[in-house]
Amino acid sequence: MPVARALRLPITAVVAALALSGCMSTSGPVAMGPQGLGPQGVDAVTYGPAYASAPVADAGGGGAISALRSAFASASPGYGYAAPGAAPVVYAAAPGGPAGYDNSYHLGPGDKLRVVVYGQEGLTNSYAIDAAGSITMPLIGSVPARGRTPAGLAGEISARLRNGFIRDPSVAVEIESYRPFFILGEVQAPGQYPYVPNMTVESAVAIAGGFSPRAKRDQVTLTHTDASGSGRFVVPLGTPMSPGDTVFVGERWF
Fold first, then answer.
1. Helices (H) then strands (E): counts for the chain
2. Which of 104, 106, 108, 107 is closest to 73 using CA atoms?
3. Model pLDDT, residue 37
4. Does this model's pTM top 0.85?
5. How many CA atoms, within 13 angstroms, populate the side-chain half-sphere of residue 24?
6. How far, in Å, are 7, 78, 114 from residue 99 at the CA level?
7. Which regions of the chain are under pLDDT 50?
């Protein structure tokens, strides 16, 4: 009986050692991070696979701002834009376009003009368009200028001078300075400022000293008036402006 017990202990130890050796040599499944995710592999195993963000729609290669510029160029009354899956946001372009060059610009009160009547120094002078939309010249008196282009006004002046004053007048009209624009609301220095050709809303904010700490910085309200009437439009910062426009920068809520 003691001999059997003595033999049983080594046999038990050998069997246990073999079983342990077998468990250690058997390779079990090892968690591997998804290939191609770089440092996100471990996180993907723990929290699930990562997904790339959905592409943002780009209208004409420049998003909403590009679409607005196209809308201005085509004199479109408005343009709607929304990214896929997002709540629709409408950016409306003001009617008409920026004063990119004088020939297509429509004059209005506050504009200052240089009228040249060749060979007539007494008529050649600077004239400001008054609140009634007219300029007053010697000989011919008040001449309506509101809504006309510089070339159109030159033609009107020529016609009036030809009617009993100058046999064959030659007239040119140039814009000496544009009527000012206005910027109100959450900017450092709201007020009235001289218009600079090809301005955008963003440059208007910069001229006014930049945004205040409470300003809503992604979009503003633009008030535009022309021959077709007046309207208010919510626009992004890249929107072109015209002389006489009013920009209102709102206050953010958080």
1. 5, 12
2. 104
3. 41
4. no
5. 6
6. 108, 19, 17
7. 1, 3-4, 6-7, 14-101
Assess contact for 185 and 223: CB atoms under 8 A. Answer: no
Find how far residue 201's CA is from the centre of its chain.
7
Q: How far apart are CA 46 and CA 241, in angstroms?
A: 52
CB atoms within 10 A of CB 170: 13
Which 8-state DSSP code applies to residue 189? S
| CA 139 to the chain's CA centroid | 47
**Which residue from 213, 11, 198, 222 is spatially nearest to 97, judged by alpha carbons?**
198
Structure tokens at 107: 């004059």
Nearest to 171 by CA among 135, 146, 147: 135
CA 231 – CA 1 distance, rounded (Å): 112
pLDDT tens track for 193-227? 999 988 999 999 999 999 999 999 999 999 998 77
In single-letter form, the type of residue at position 34 comes to P
71 Cβ contact partners less than 8 Å away, ≥ 6 residues apart: 78, 79, 93
CA distance 162 to 81: 52
Overall size of the chain counted in residues: 254
How far is Cα 107 from Cα 134, in angstroms, rounded to an integer? Answer: 10
Residue 95 DSSP class:
S
Which residue type does 103 have? N
Q: How far is CA 87 from CA 1, 77, 131, 186, 234, in A?
A: 88, 22, 43, 26, 16
CA distance 149 to 102: 8
* C-alpha atoms less than 13 angstroms from C-alpha of 79 in its C-beta half-sphere: 23
